[in-house]
Write a structure and sequence with these properties.
alpha+beta, 8-stranded antiparallel β-sheet, 7 helices, 20% strand, globular
Length: 237
Amino acid sequence: MSSADIEVIVFARPNRSLTIEERHAKVMSMMSRFDRPLGFSGLDLPPAPDCGDALSASFTVKFPIRGLRVIGDYLYRGAAYIYKDRSSFDERLNFWFKISNKNVDYKKILNDQLPKVIEAFEGYKATVFYGFYSMDYHGGPDHDNPVYKSLFEDPGVDVNGRNNIYTLNPAQFWDEELCHRALGYGPDEVIARLQGECASVERLMDGVYLVLNDDPHLSYEDFVEMNERIKPILGLI
């Protein structure tokens, strides 16, 4: 899939103790400490966005790299708005590019830059999506994969969210809370189990950052093999 779309998402639980203006100032400061492709160093930074009549506020940054896009969003801070313990209530920082973009170093993003973005956005989770592989693994739009479908329909499971890990992707981050809720053990145990089993696994903040496959030409068959090999090691279904 030489022209696959890559989406990189960092997820953060909203922190109502910080205003959107304070949160945005921290994110911009941290993202400006490193360079491209994903860093904001030397770029024109947007002012803090306003929710207006909506329940979230979004911003974007213009990159000098053609074909690389970013959108970030923060949740409304009003006390009357009840945050639910679901990933649909996460704040997000999304990047998009094509794997064929010669000006975006995919391996550098996975092995060097994404951990910096996770720290800058204070994420609890991050995922690198390669094309439609994750959707295909779930059984397509209709969730024809029976295991995924049963998880998706269980109201107590936030599938691939705040309390569940079902799909493994080329690279991902899980903080300590997510590890305990989804795996039943902490980041150090993840590292112990995966030493020598993947490209890299290391501590990041209070969690663990995993690069399972950084091949820019990843096939769907290799994506499935990666999941079928690594998930049993972690005790995932």
